[in-house]
Automatic annotation (TrEMBL), chain A:
Ranges for domain HTH gntR-type: 9-77
Keywords: DNA-binding, Transcription, Transcription regulation
Protein name as it appears in the record: GntR family transcriptional regulator
Species the sequence originates in: Ligilactobacillus salitolerans
GO molecular function: DNA binding; DNA-binding transcription factor activity
Gene3D superfamilies, sorted: Winged helix-like DNA-binding domain superfamily/Winged helix DNA-binding domain
UniProtKB/TrEMBL annotation, chain B:
Highest rank taxon of the organism: Bacteria
Coiled coil stretches, renumbered: none
SUPFAM superfamilies per UniProt: P-loop containing nucleoside triphosphate hydrolases
Residue ranges constituting the ABC transporter domain according to the UniProt record: 4-229
Protein name: ABC transporter ATP-binding protein
UniProt keyword ATP-binding present: yes
Key words of the record: ATP-binding, Nucleotide-binding
GO MF annotation list: ATP binding; ATP hydrolysis activity
Entry-linked InterPro entries: AAA+_ATPase, ABC_transporter-like_ATP-bd, P-loop_NTPase
SMART domains: AAA
Organism for this UniProt entry: Ligilactobacillus salitolerans
Amino acid sequence: MQFNFNSSEPLYLQVAAQIENAIFLGSFAANEQIPSTTEISRDFKINPATVLKGMNILVNDGLIEKKRGLGMFVLADAQEKIRVKRQNEFFHDYIQKMIVEARNLGLGKEAVISLVEKGFGEK
Amino acid sequence: MTEVNLTQISKKFGKSTVLKQIDLTLAGQTIYGLLGRNGAGKSTLLNIIENRIPATSGSVQIDGEDNVNNDLALGKVYLMSEQNLYSNSAKVDQIFRETALFYPGFDFELAHQLTNKFELNENLRFGKLSTGYRAVMKDIIALAVDAEVILLDEPTLGLDAAHRELFYQELMEAYAKRPRIFVISTHLIEEIAGLIEHVLLLKDGKMMLNDTTENLLAQSYAITGPEKQVQEYTAGLNVIGHDSLGKLRSDYVFGELDDQRILPDTVSVEGIDLQKLFINLTNGQWEKERA
C-alpha cells in the first residue's frame, strides 16, 4: 500500500480515498482483512482517531465491515460498488474538466473527439 | 480519565513576562501539539504543569488537586525535556529502575523492546551517551511510564531522521494501545502534523489558538492567482500572509471565506497545511496585513 498525502485535503478523507483505491485495484480483495487502525496509524504516523474516521466513511459506504474482535473486512461487492460510483463521477471528474481545458486551449469538439478516438486506438 | 486544568497561569522571569494568564484544559485521550516560536513560553508552560518551576500566579490542578508538592497528583504526569535529571555515572537500566520507583507501572518489557529497536545499550552510563541517545533514552522512558499525561518537550531534538521516524511510529503504537494525553512541543511541525489532533499555539506568552487540527485546517486557505483578482477576492477577509512571484499572488486566509463573492476562473482556492498556517500566524506579517 502506498499513501501519498497532500496538504490541501483533510487527512481522514485521504485515508478513506487511499483505502478505497487499494480495494478498487484489488490490493485488498473481497472478504479479506484490511490493515488495522493501529497498523495504519503506526506505519504512516497518523493519529488513530483520524484513521478510524476515514475507515468509518468506508463502513458507511458499505465497502468494509467491522467484525467484532477481528478487525475490518472488505465486503464481497465492494469493488463493484466503487466501480459504479466512479462511473457516475466520471463525467464530473474527467469529462467536464477536460472540456474546460480544451476550451482554454482553443480545441473544438471535433478535435477533442478525434483525440479521444486516437487514445482508444492506442494500446 | 485524567484532566489537567490550568487557571490564569502567569510566569515572570525578572521583568519579562513569559506566560500571560493562561487558561487551559487537557482532557480525554488526545494528542496535543504545543506550538510556538522560540521563546514563546512552551517549555515554561510544561515545566509549570509538572511543578518543576513555580508559576508566578495562577494554579494547576490535576484531577482537581493542586500540583504543588503533591506527589500523588504529579505521579499522573511525566515530563520529558531537554533537561538532564540523571547522574552521569548511572547506567540506562538503572535509570529505568529508578524511574519505576516513582512510576510503579513502568513497562520494562516495552522499554527493553524499544532499546533494542533504537539500538541503545542499556549497560552504558548516561554520561557516555551522545545527545541523540540521551533524547532516545528519555523518549523510551516517556513511552514506558504509566502516567496518564505525557508531556514531550522537543522529543526529537538531536535524533537523526531514521530515529525520528521510528519514534513517531512507536508513539502512535503506544498511543493506540493505551490512549492517554500526550502534549508534544516541537519545531518540526511538518513531521507531527498527522499525529496531533489538537493544536495549542502560544504567541508572546498567550494562548493564541486552542482548537482541533481539523477545525483549524478547515478554515485555512491559500487563494492563488493574478495579483489584482486575488486581492479583490480577499479584501476584508482575515488575510494572515501572502507570497508573491511577479504578478502571481497567494493570499493566506484564516477564517471564513465569503460565499457571496464570485471566484474568478483564474483564481484557485486550496487548503494549506499546519506548517504554513503556523508560519503565517506567528511571523508577525499578520499584524502588518491587518494594519
